[in-house]
Amino acid sequence: MRRGPSDEMKINALYPGTFDPPTNGHIDLVERGSKIFDHVTVAVLTNPVKNPLFTVEERVEMLQEATRGFGNVSVATFDGMMVDFAREIGAKVVLRGIRAISDYEHEFQMALMNRRLAPELETVFLQPAGRYSFVSSRMVKEVVSFGGKVEGLVPPNVIKRLKSRIKKS
User: Fold this and answer.
1) What CATH number did the domain enclosing 74 receive?
2) Has 50 been annotated as catalytic?
3) Distance in angstroms (rounded) separating the CA atoms of residues 23 and 11
4) Active-site residue, 26 included
5) Which of 57, 87, 103, 115 would suit a FRET pair with 123, their CA atoms being 20 to 30 Å apart?
């Protein structure tokens, strides 16, 4: 069944991740997703196994600050299975970013498992803007730990927190 412009069906997207820390590539995907979907929930995974640099609360704060200008974006946290959280918030789409072929292999496997667990969810892959295609949270933390500059790769509020946190480590 095709939807017409007057249909009231809203398409909510879920953009899950660790976001440790959020990068401009993440924010680029949020912005682009906000133009495609009626609402985007950026969901920070509570996963202590990954040994994050920032607490979940800090990551939520950084994301809220960086996405404040988008009227149809919210930030939440979840633990457990992403498909359960997607159902809980009424998401119909899972938004995922792909920077390189290596990302695609992992993301493709996750999308297929999610489809098996929740056939009603669709996964949509977006590529970040070319200027962010090489940026990862892991790489940003590594560069800062060696005294390198990451301006333009992460939001300004993240730079301050990174420098403060890595000095303390």
Assistant:
1) 3.40.50.620
2) yes
3) 25
4) yes
5) 57
